[in-house]
Design a protein that fits this description.
Blueprint lengths: L1 H11 L35 H4 L3 E4 L5 H13 L11 E7 L5 E8 L6 H7 L1
Antiparallel strand pairs: 1-2, 2-3
Length: 121
């Protein structure tokens, strides 16, 4: 998937010419609509200490948490929900009363690394 995305970016930038597609992809997941899940959006106006301990749980494929995670990203991320490329880790954060308070997605940085590389040297 990552290699295909790289090749398509090269083609979009005019760096290579790819042969025409031999068939249309039948990726059913691409055309599937997402079921948005309602969640408590009441502002949190207490100190962090009153929320502790927090639980940070990895979101696994095929779990209810994955549907919640995707719904949160679709509703609240400025880019919306898009397919990720490469390795990534997803987490949901809940407070002591199991109230959902956040979602984290850590992905591999593949395209925008010039500033990072300049900083590292």
């Amino acid at each position: 998937m990552a290699a295909r995305t790289l090749l398509l970016k090269f083609e979009q930038r005019g760096l290579i010419v790819l042969p025409p597609r031999q068939h249309t992809p039948s990726n059913a997941a691409r055309n599937r609509s997402l079921c948005l899940i309602d969640h408590d959006q009441t502002p949190i106006a207490v100190s962090l200490r009153t929320l502790l301990p927090l639980s940070i749980n990895k979101v696994e494929q095929g779990t209810d948490d994955l549907a919640i995670f995707k719904s949160l990203i679709a509703q609240h991320h400025y880019l919306g929900l898009r397919n990720t490329v490469g390795e990534n880790l997803k987490y949901l954060i809940r407070d002591r009363s199991d109230r959902l308070i956040g979602a984290l997605l850590f992905g591999s940085a593949a395209w925008q690394t010039q500033a990072r590389d300049a900083f590292i040297g």
